[in-house]
Amino acid sequence: MKKAAFGWLLSRASAVVLVAGLAVHFSANHFGRPNASEHGIVMMRLAHPGWMAFYAVFLLAIIYHAAYGLWGIALEYLKKGRVLSAVKSALVILSALLVIAGLWILSDTQMLLANPPAPCYKCHSAGSTAGTIPSGRALRIFQ
Amino acid sequence: MDKTFRIKRFAPEKDNASRWEDFSVELGPHERLLDGLVRIKEFTDGSLTFRRSCAHGMCGSCAMKINGRSRLACQTLADDMPELVIFEPLPAFPVIKDLVVDMEPFFEKIRSVMPYLVNDEPLPGRERPQSPEEMEKILDSIRCILCACCTSSCPVYWGDKQYLGPAALVKAARFVLDSRDRGGKARLDLVSGAHGAARCHSIYNCVEACPRDIDVTRHIAILKRQTLKRGLRGAR
Amino acid sequence: MVHRFDTLVIGSGLAGLSAAIEASLQGTVAVIAKLYPTRCHSSAAQGGIAAALGNEEPDSIEWHVYDTVKGGDYLTDQDAAGTLCEDAIKTVIRLEHLGVPFSRTPQGKIAQRRFGGHTRDFGAAPARRACYSADRTGLAIVNTLYEQCAKQPVAFFPEYHVLDLVIEDGRCLGAVALELRTGEICAFEAGATIIATGGYGRVFKTTSNAMASTGDLLGILYSKGMPLEDMEFFQFHPTGLLGLGILVTEGARGEGGVLVNGNGETFMEKYAPRIKDLAPRDMVSRAIITEIKEGRGIGGNDYVYLDLRNVPRKTLETRLPEIMTFSRIYMGVDPSEKPIPVAPTAHYAMGGIPTDRDGRVLITESGAAVEGLFAAGECACVSVHGANRLGCNSLLDTVVFGRRAGMKAAAQKDKSGPGMPPGAMERARETVSSLLNNKGGVRAGAIKKELQELMMDKCSVFRDDAGLRAAAEKIETIRQKAGNISIDDKGEKFNTELLDAIETIHLVNLGEAIVHSALQRTESRGAHCRQDYPERDDGNWLKHTFIRKKDGEIHFSFKPVSITKFKPEKRQY
Amino acid sequence: MRYRLTTGFFAFILNRLSGVILAVFLIPHFFSLYFIGDAARYEAIRGFYDTPVMRFSELALLGIVLAHGLNGIRLILLEAGAPTRLQKVFFWTALSAGALILLISIPHMMWGAR
User: Fold this and answer.
1) Is residue A83 domain-resident?
2) Closest CA to B73 of B84, B89, B96
3) Distances (CA, A) of A105 to A38, A46, A99, D37
């Protein structure tokens, strides 16, 4: 099968992943519960390895889908030549950077969960009713 | 009833840009827009230039943009059109003169998809069997008259002249779906490149433009699925 | 600009494409035509292509030959009809192998249906002999042959208009054409030239023929003093949509449709008791005109009804989809609910360029041929159709004789003649510039309109001496006026008004040939029906007409009909 | 004279514009997550998004996501073989479903505890 056809297949596959993924991502971050995007709650959620797998896949899907879409537009409006190949390399580099950034963010959360800093002044000082950094028990699951 | 034809004119020798020109023409019931164009050319302005031949929607010569839509002038009745009818050359093709465009780019795309039956098996003494059900599958795509209304109406083709275009893809699908054809693999490779079936974004302008009521986009979707099915099976 | 090919084909309809494919097996081929290949009028053919395959009921080649001869009112050259019907079977099978999408029987064979004049047992009952692809058989075959040309080394030159043939002492060296796009005159040298330019129905006002069917090459040969054969025989198809001339294929009657007059009677029983509505076209057209003349047209007007309401809707939709579309778009009528208004319409030219069975263009009745010049299809007169063509024999004629001409023409390639004389292109340039600069003030459209109405009025289904004489005089005045045709469009590029003028002049010549041929044939035979000579006169007139024009004088000579198997007898259906 | 705007063409333009906007949005989205490791900076950025203007732009972004996503579902269904006569129905269904979801989410997106 031709590269272009395989690329097209991936774009549709990633689209399906994104439709489901976005529903989950949005509900978890915006609608799931009050103050869902608060740091503590987010960290508590990310402690569960399931989310790590979800976000790894979700990350690759969104970056690939976005790159494929932009590349399609470039292919259609730019003639074969220097500009088009420049756009191609730009898209490849940008996607790589975003993937790395995404993975960095994911690993960042795990490092924080593995060794929490001094009590988080925000969570305590603000006296917010929100949960604190997950207790040792949650961490053990992680380790 | 009296009609005003607003026609986009361009004479290669004199003009460097196109210009509009209005004609008023008398058309009876059941008369076609083409009859109006012929009447203007024969009795008002002999220099008005357009292609035409069969005058009943079977040859595809008189494809042009009428009131903002690619269609056949001979298949559009005067009764169905408003008082003002705007004629422009077919979109997305180089204009040669008045309503005549260069069709070579269109036919090149058709020729580039192996548009012929491929079957190197030994020829049987009689006709190759094909059931009515098998023939049913190609009943839609064999009706194409290559008038280019679809390709000229496709926004993707407007932007990307390398795109094969709906007409060439229907011609390819006609053979991919023909139970007698053995060239499926090679032909699917020709239409699954960067500017092939993948460029179709299900806009359906082609289906609305086709004077032969062919379900063009469905055929392109079939090519997409066939490419996957035969591609995933891995057989080169 | 001079192009050089082994074989030159003029016209890209079925005959031209068949010849080109065959010739490309032996050498280089160029196809020049006024239109793009798939725009040819062959793609408007609906009914089918006749062959005694016997897929639906027993059939035989001999029955097919008999029907072709009897259909042609015994003017058909029986040896040529034999070739046509024998080649038919392998030709249709070969077309299927090339990819033609024929409609199929449940057993997967090519489906066949009844058609006008095709019978079994020498006229006993209608026979299923028409192989079809719904009601667009022409389009199906044209698309397939054009696709095959993408596979073979055939060079296409669409939108080139042939201005002249170059014939030097009995040998054709090629053609001179105008490239529409640039207005440039160019020459095509070739070992052999095949004319396949189709019919000339545009001579008549109401015609099924495309606007490009103007018989240009016949006009060129006629103006060179070369003979044209059987020009008086022009077929009027009985069922054309009223006023538009768009055909409703005979296949509709083959599927059970019937003709109905103003009193609601299915009147064909009176004229052809046995096969009624499936009688040959000349008979059905005469029947309709007679009904109209005797005041039994629909509401007293000049048309009758084709009633398809008793044909099951599913059959209409699967076997006659185009008819359903035409009726709905152009007449606003759904054939399964209301009858379709139809009237005879000029359809097919039995006459044309005289050729032998291999397509060689003849210059004398005794068979002397122009070297290197061939003709095939409707423009040629072999003659396999005689005085009246049977439906589905024309598609067959184009493919069978197109291929034979292509085979014989390509064999000429080693005998390349002398180069193209410069004078040839010069003469063509003069005709073009004289037309462009003519100050006559007469519009080609007006001339064409006057000619078409005259022919429709005086020289169509029913003819008589007085009418034809008046027509002959009128045509002479039209010819004088045609000398003053002037053109608005002085541009070089894509000047279609110039082409209309050239075509109009050809049409006037052909009109003259038809009228004079009809005038001198004092009998009624096939499509040529004289009210003053209603009987067929085999004694005096069992012969082909050759008409020539030399220095303004019209001469007639005759060629005997080749009769091998079937003795002429009274034509009853 | 412009070519007639058809439903399919409108869907195509909508899909393409929304796609580009979302792709562009990805970059700020990653930036705002970059400080997930530092709770204080993360909360600061979260506060930045907590103003009515930013909440409204997030709502608009949700609308764009819905438009692109639901129209994308239309494309996949059609390419998978859904009949052509449904193409317009799919579009209007997608558009109205998106609008509905957007309406329902306004209270939470604008004034809810995020």
Assistant:
1) yes
2) B89
3) 16, 11, 10, 8
Q: Indicate the residue of A1, A9, A76 with minimum beta-carbon distance to B156.
A: A76
Rounded Cα–Cα distance for residues B58 and C180 (Å): 23
Q: Which residue among C113, C253, C281, C536 is the active-site one?
A: C281
Contact A30 D114 (CB under 8 A): yes
Give the whole-number percent of chain B exceeding pLDDT 70: 99
Tell whether domain B2-101 is in CATH 3.40.50.300: no
> Residue B219: pLDDT above 90?
yes
Q: Using CB atoms and an 8 Å cut-off, which of residues 53-82 of chain B contact chain C?
A: 53-61, 75, 77
Residues of A whose CB is below 8 A from D72 = 15, 18-19
CATH architecture of the domain with range B104-233: Orthogonal Bundle (1.10)
Task: Assess whether pLDDT exceeds 70 at residue B234.
Answer: no
Please determine, for residue B231, whether its predicted confidence score (pLDDT) is greater than 90: no
Contact assessment for residue B48 and residue B7, using Cβ atoms and an 8 Å cutoff: yes
pLDDT at A125 over 60: no
Question: Positive or negative, the Cα torsion across A96, A97, A98, A100?
Answer: positive
- The count of domains in chain A is 1
Distance from the D29 Cα atom to the nearest Cα atom in chain B, whole angstroms: 28
B75 to chain C, minimum CA–CA distance in Å? 7
Instruction: List the single residue in B65, B67, B204 with the smallest CB-CB distance to D6.
Output: B204
> Is the ipTM beyond the 0.90 threshold?
yes
d(CA C246, CA C191): 39
Boundaries of CATH 3.10.20.30 in chain B? 2-101
Burial grade of D25 (CB within 10 A; 0-12, 13-18, 19 or more)? middle
Q: Quick one: closest CA in B to C144, which residue?
A: B116
State in Å, rounded, how far the first CA of chain B is from the last one: 61
The yes-or-no answer on residue C281 being catalytic is: yes
Domain span holding position A11: 7-114
Do C and A have ≥3 inter-chain CB pairs under 8 A?
A: no
**CATH value at residue A82:** 1.20.1300
Q: Please indicate, yes or no, if residue A119 is contained in any of the structural domains.
A: no
pTM beyond cutoff 0.90: yes
In a domain, A71, yes or no: yes
Q: For position A46, what pLDDT does the model report?
A: 83
- Smallest CA–CA distance from B97 into chain C, residue: C494
Touching subunits of C (3+ CB pairs, under 8 Å) are B
Closest A-chain CA to B236: A1
Q: Give chain C's residues under pLDDT 70.
A: 414-418
In this complex, do B202 and D9 lie within 8 Å of one another by their Cβ atoms?
A: no
Considering the domain boundaries, does residue A92 fall inside one?
yes
* Contact at CB, A66 and D23, closer than 8 angstroms: yes
Instruction: Indicate if the pLDDT at residue A26 is higher than 90.
Output: no
Q: SS3 for C440?
A: coil
pLDDT value for A118: 61
Q: Do A8 and B198 touch (CB under 8 A)?
A: yes
Domains parsed from chain D with CATH numbers: 10-111 (1.20.1300.10)
- Taking contacts as CB-CB distances below 8 angstroms, the residues of chain A near B92 are none
Residue C475 has what pLDDT? 97
Residues near A39 by beta carbon (within 8 Å), at least 6 away in sequence = A120, A122, A123, D36, D39, D42, D43, D46
Query: Cα–Cα distance between D36 and D44 in angstroms, integer?
Result: 11
Position of tokens 């548009």?
B115
At residue A128, the pLDDT reads 42
pLDDT tens, C403-458? 999 999 998 876 666 678 888 899 999 999 999 999 988 999 999 999 999 999 99
- The pLDDT score that the predictor gives to residue B126 is 93
What is the DSSP code (8-state) at residue C412? Answer: T
* CB within 8 Å: B203 and D8: yes
Neighbours of chain B (3+ CB pairs under 8 A): A, C, D
